[in-house]
Amino acid sequence: SLGALLGIVFLRSQRIQDLLGPRRMPLEMYATAFGFYHNWHIVSRNRLAVVTAMYITSAIAKVAGCLYSHDDESMKGFSEKDPVMLVSFLISSAMLFALMFCQLHVCSCLEMAIDQYCIRFFEAADLSKGIAEWNVLQALLRRAAHTVEVCFLAVSTGVLAVLLLTGVEMFNLGERDYGKGVMSSGITLGLWAMWVLPSTGLVFYAVFRAAAITEKCNRVPALVNSWSLIEEQIDHEKQYTVQYIIQSAAGFYVKGVRVNATWALKLSYFFGVLMFTILTQSFLS
Fold it and tell me: What global pTM score does this model have?
């Protein structure tokens, strides 16, 4: 709940309305001007379907967990506060998943903007125009990343903190309920996984989509360098363009840190090892 609330506050403070509308809408203006607005919204609708399915899975698992705790004699059952907590969870989760979709929506536009830039660069065969359009594109990248970066941190930190705290709770529950049955522990663990892992998976998916933006920017210089405008072996103007793009260091930044594939893989491996440790200890206990 705190992560979702902070994410909304940070998005408003960074003026998300000036990025996605209804005011200036630079992303939609850029996508419309360069002809990928329709494709962008198709990709976003597909991602919205995935996010919605994950939210429904998480909500069903949470409700099932509450019903199971009510029916299981080893659990405490429902209390008067459980319905309120359940409704609060469903509302806060809806806000959390909506924020993650907002990040994915922005990332999908930026990815397609880089792809379209490469296509236009080859079609136009104009290095000067390519540099001018690259300046516009990297400005758009910086503005979009600056708008969502704090929300990105708040939501990701909140979801991963919930994952770790719930894992510790499950570990302690396994120790308290030792000897009450493997079936009961397995059902509890399965419901916990279906409740927590969808949001965690979306966080890592958003991280990898942000890293894909940086990786696409890194591949642009090699693409430009592979194209021959003239028959000379050394094209100084082309080399200047390549160096200009490299030194611009475009990509997706979060508080000055350039999010790339290496960073995303290290993060996923770290939490993979951590979750494996928690699950192993839960089963052993």
Answer: 0.84
pLDDT given at position 169: 66
| pLDDT digit string, tens, across residues 213-252 | 999 999 999 888 887 655 556 678 888 889 999 999 999 9
Amino acid at the residue 67: L
If we measure between CA atoms, which residue out of 236, 216, 240 comes closest to residue 118? Answer: 216
pLDDT tens digit string along 84-101?
777 888 888 888 899 999
